[in-house]
From TrEMBL:
Residue intervals of the GPI inositol-deacylase winged helix domain: 520-599
InterPro entries reported for this sequence: Ankyrin_rpt, Ankyrin_rpt-contain_sf, GPIID_WHD, NPHP3-like_N, P-loop_NTPase
UniProt domain Nephrocystin 3-like N-terminal: residue ranges: 247-409
Record organism: Hyaloscypha variabilis (strain UAMH 11265 / GT02V1 / F)
Annotated ANK repeat ranges: 740-772
Name listed for the protein in its UniProt record: Uncharacterized protein
Lineage: Eukaryota, Fungi, Dikarya, Ascomycota, Pezizomycotina
Amino acid sequence: MEAIGLVASVIAIVQISGACLKLSLKPLGPSSYKPERLQSLSTTLYGFNGNIRNLQTLLEIYEDDQARLDTLNHLQEPLMKCHEALQLLSSRLQSDGFFAQYIMGSKFDKKFELCLRVLNDAKDLLELSLQCDQRILISAVESYIRNVAEDTRDIKAAIKQNEQLIQSIDTRIKQPSDLAMRLHDEHTQSVARLESSIRDVHIDIESQESEGRLREQLRHRSLVLNWLSNVDFRSNYLDALRKRESGTGQWLIDQELFRSWRDGPVRALWLNGMPGAGKTFLSTAVVDHLERTSTCPVVYFYFDFKDSVKQAIESMMRSVAVQLETSLLHNKVSPALEQLYSNCQKTGSGRNPTLDEVTDLIIALSAFAPKFYIILDALDECENREELLEAITTLKNSAVNAKLFVTSRQEQDIIECLTEDDFTPVTILEDSVNHDIGLYVSSILRNNIHLRRLPKELKRHIQNTLTAGAKSMQVDMIRPLKRPKIIREALEKLPKNLDETYKRILLRVSTEDEENLVQMRRIFAFVTFAKRPLTLAELAQAVVVEIRGKQFDEDAAFYDPKDLLSLCRPLVDISPSTGLLGFVHYSVQEFLLSNRLSSAEGAVRMFALNDGSCHMEIAQICLTFVGFDDFADGPCQTFKELQDRKEKYPFLDYAAEYWPSHTKHKDVEVAVSDLLLKLLVPQKNAKLGSVIQACDNPNINSPSCGSWGTALMTAIHFDRQDIVGMLLDLKIDVNVGGGYYYTALHSAAIMNDIHTMKRVIQLGANIDFGKESWRQFDDRLPLSMASSFGCSRAFLYLIASGASLCNVPIESWANDLALGIDYKDVSKEWALTFADELSSLGHYVEVVVFSKGLGNSELLEGGRLMLEGENVSFYFRAKDPPV
């Protein structure tokens, strides 16, 4: 490729990828493809756009360096494919017509998938090319520095000779001559040129070092922030922002009390109101207003009854800390967070920070901001309100620069705490709610294809009726009606409260679609009691499972998963940001779980939910699904096969991961005992291998179940302690083995899983398996396997349990163990502690320690091998027991 052609191609791709990025939030219309894959478009485009811009910058720098540009010729073909893929995406994203939105969407999936794959592959190739070029540049700079150093020495030698010559001339002539002056000038100029060259080299070196430090700093920052919190805190805000009508909540923004909170002395506001008053939309209005008008950091968190992660106070506090950290420091980690991360990583495998530690971190970060805002929505949806209210009190009292805005229902514990803590209450009044509802109803009347054609007088009547009664949800009862007379009659009979509204909706959907009543109830059960929110594709398979069936009946499934929404709207909807299903409001779930519905008369009572029956039904569905003959072939042999299986059976992920959780609820395990035994009892059940592989979700080819041995060994390897516990409770033969690691005890030893080792030994595991044919360095012995994999805790537990050393000196075992441990995990403290623990078990060893990098003749004694840790060189040797 000619240099000018490469530059032009890159510029064209930068332009079109930027255009696609701006259009990526635009709805794509119907698509049979997975929503989560469609959501990856923005992420893919962001990553690709960054890499292609980096390449553009590189080409501008190397504009006159033809040799360097020639090294990038291999990018021609990938860039051409990227250009074609981006053109295809751009044309799709710019399409607004009916045909493009509703017909071409479903035909576009394969091309869409290909485009994403091309862009992801190209992104990785560009990253690799840029890294290679960087290494070449660094090597060239180092070579240049060496050459300059050699030239410098030569010049200095020449200067010294000149100085000696000048001194010789000066001794011969007492008066300055033209020759002496000329030599002096040349000498001065040479020194100046040399100093300038050295300065330029130093500047280049410092620039390269600074760039490297910045890249490492950003990588470390991303790692630490992701460790602290990876909760998607923006999805609830974005969903509410999309649904919110312009002007909603303006009455709150215009209040003198709000302005006093935003700019004045008021530090804490508590917005409260009845269910359905629009508190989440008002929180969103506040966040949107502050982000557009304030230069101070704005952090927020929406508690969410639909997502168990977002019901935890730990999730909220850690998210607030991450948002505050990223708002205040853009390129590095704050000292407070760095210290917290370091403390939590000292345990080796690491731990999560405690709630008190995160609270202290937020308080420490608050010192960097003269003022910042914290908006917390739906406190009443937090699972541990007592801890939450304590944390809010601590933040208010300790983070003096924080302005807090919280919302909730008027529940007694919240009223008492926030009133005592001087939160100024703002109660949502009916007039304010009616104004916001009026905006929503007006939008429906303008945009609905049927309602917008109604007579103006009738639309005013609808507007006034729904607004005056604060009945925004009841617009869904009017939406499908087409005759003015029927609409007027419906307006006269509107429900008086939320309970009556929900009853009418349930009655309507049950009478309009009687053949799907079971599926509707299952939808409500999964949305309420699932361990995580489900996608539309997952739920569409789950609700049609025939309990205790043999295989999945594709004829019973929904042809299009989107048809599922028609069964349960307007009570259930899909989040545009996450693609996950949930109730439209917390009050829907409360009603379905309430005695008001379970004691109601008529058909609607069948939709009443309770904890026991729902977990039992979900457990039966999950166990039936993973036990289908569709998975009788066992684990997939390649990652591609696993991807194809999960694409065909999207519910497999959830069923494989969470069936143990649902069976643990009261009385459920007894009710599903036949399904449990069918799955767990066979020692080498291929279906159980498929289940364990599915929830491991590997990124590389995964070995078959046979490679790991029995189902118990497979569960140990993938750290499925719930399944391990169930299998061991059945008192299975733990010495049945096979595969890579011989027995369950071997598998537990290499996982450093002491709890499982203890249980299998109690059940009769052979602690000296393979001793009869054992040779040094043969890994058939559990002790040898723990040693080879550097599993010191398992090694010590086996020694303490009486494992045989097979006539091999203890110091040889100890040195072999140290070789198996990661270089960075080996320290002088570890070696001394390990030696003390062995000695306490009656196997006496000591540690011979040397300074890092220094040799010692004693190392050669007996052919001993010096062990290298990050900051230590050492080896173990036997010592005499104490007298």
